[in-house]
Amino acid sequence: MPLEAEDIPNTEYGAPLPNYGTVTKLPSKERSLEEIYEELGFGWAQCLIWAVLMLAAVADFSQMFVHAILIPSIRQEWELSLPFTVILVSSVYFCYGLGGLVCGMLSDKFGRCKVLMVSTGLLTVTGTLSAIAVNKWQFLGFQATGGFCIGASMTTAVVYSAEITSSAYKEIGPCLISVMGSFSTVMVGISTFLVLNAFGWRALVMVSTSPAPVALIFLCMLPESPRYLVASGSTEEASKTIQKFFKWNRTTLPEGTTIKTYKNVERGNMGDLVKPEYLRETILLSLMNCGNVLIAFSLIVFLPLALQMNYYNTDYYDTDYADNGIVFNTSSVDQVLTQGAIRDLTIVTLSGFLGVLAGITLVKTAGRVRAIRVIAGASTLFGASLFIFVNGAATIANFCLLQFLVMCLNVIMNVIITEFYPTAIRSTGSGFLGFWAKFSGVIGTGLVYVLVEVDPELVVAMFLVANVVVLVCSWVWNTETRHTVLHDV
To answer: What φ, ψ does residue 219 adopt, rounded to 5°?
Structure first.
């Protein structure tokens, strides 16, 4: 059904319309891509592409999450000092953000599929090499490169998933990727329970890497995003792709229909993000994303430490101020992570999966602005209450609720970021915001290893400060993107 006049967004809803593209009725059979997508409807074309992107999400999230689980085992095997452990963890997450920043721009300039294929291929190689690394420096290099590939892949996949349908279904793709990403962390938890203590950390790395080559095979078969093709001036190729979509959906494009052509559209320009019409919202999105990702990444690192302390009722590390720095305490611990701790870790990841589902529900029913404010408020209140419960032996219920709220907000943020920016800078904007968010996550993960040595409550204080920042920004943010149309360019 074609868009009515009242459906066309203005400055009151979402991002202001760019000067170079509007969704309007055209007098001839030349039509905007948005109108053609409405004729296409929803069907097998979107489902098949989303399935491949969800598989790519499994490959990315599996390797990202397993990295934190491996740290205690790696530290024990190579007797890593605390400073090197911090560098190892932080470098992976920094490269994760850097990959999104660099390849976000490359995706807008050269295409979504190219970035997805190259990054997933490299991720397969780095994951395999990590499993056979012979020393800490090799492992650091392979994991950092893998982090870059994960950032590149995830930034591009989320954007691509929103661009293959009409604006009426634009949030489904990013939400599905969040669901599969969270689900993959549950699978990693189960794999850890079955593999880590029985076969060792190298076997676990291989298990977590296995989805990547499978995803790569299917990514090579994906067509390029029609929205990107139109923005890049490749209208003829976009028409061929749209014809495939109509064939897969078993519908027919009206005879003689052509796609409106746009010329001289500058793509992937990071300077556009700070133009007056985007500057305020870019700053607010950056702060909210930074606060939530800091908690998310820090929680990934803090979970194994806190759960292990819970099971042994002891500090995770012995402090040795000799030249060796901080030395892992193995005097009372037979295995780096007990089966009980791994089991609880799996339960916590499952709560994150439920948080993703809750975020999707809120996005659809309450709108973006209200959803952010509700979750940010709940996270802040709960963050304050954690001081009562966390003192070296955190309860599993507390971490479950925190993971639930973090993943719920993460879904909402992904949807808003995808909807706010136009096609010409959508991936660039996502990568830019992702970089600063991951940079805050790098700081958070490093602080976790330092603060937990002093007092676990200091980690909780860090969570609370981040939640307050998100809460304040959520009340300043008043741009509802729920009814925004994804622009052709």
So the answer is: -65, -30
User: Does the pLDDT at position 345 exceed 50?
Assistant: yes
All residues at 6 or more sequence positions from 279 whose CB lies less than 8 Å from its CB, including other chains: 273
Can you tell me the distance from the alpha carbon of 27 to that of 305, in angstroms, rounded to the nearest whole number?
64
- Which tens digit of pLDDT belongs to each residue from 236-280? 888 888 889 888 988 887 777 777 777 666 776 778 888 888 889
| Residues whose CB falls within 8 Å of the CB of residue 458, separated by 6 or more in sequence, listed in order | 451, 452
Q: Tell if the pTM clears 0.85, that is, is over it.
A: no
Q: HEC states along the chain? A: CCCCHHHCCCCCCCCCCCCCCCCCCCCCCEECHHHHHHHHCCCHHHHHHHHHHHHHHHHHHHHHHHHHHHHHHHHHHHCCCHHHHHHHHHHHHHHHHHHHHHHHHHHHHHCHHHHHHHHHHHHHHHHHHHHCCCCHHHHHHHHHHHHHHHHHHHHHHHHHHHHCCCHHHCCHHHHHHHHHHHHHHHHHHHHHHHHHHHHCHHHHHHHHHCHHHHHHHHHCCCCCCHHHHHHCCCHHHHHHHHHHHHHHCCCCCCCCCEECCCCCCCCCCHHHHHCHHHHHHHHHHHHHHHHHHHHHHHHHHHHHHHHHHHHHCCCCEEECCCCCCEEECCCCCCCCCCHHHHHHHHHHHHHHHHHHHHHHHHHHHCCHHHHHHHHHHHHHHHHHHHHHHCCCCCCHHHHHHHHHHHHHHHHHHHHHHHHHCCHHHHHHHHHHHHHHHHHHHHHHHHHHHHHHHHCHHHHHHHHHHHHHHHHHHHHHCCCCCCCCCCCCC
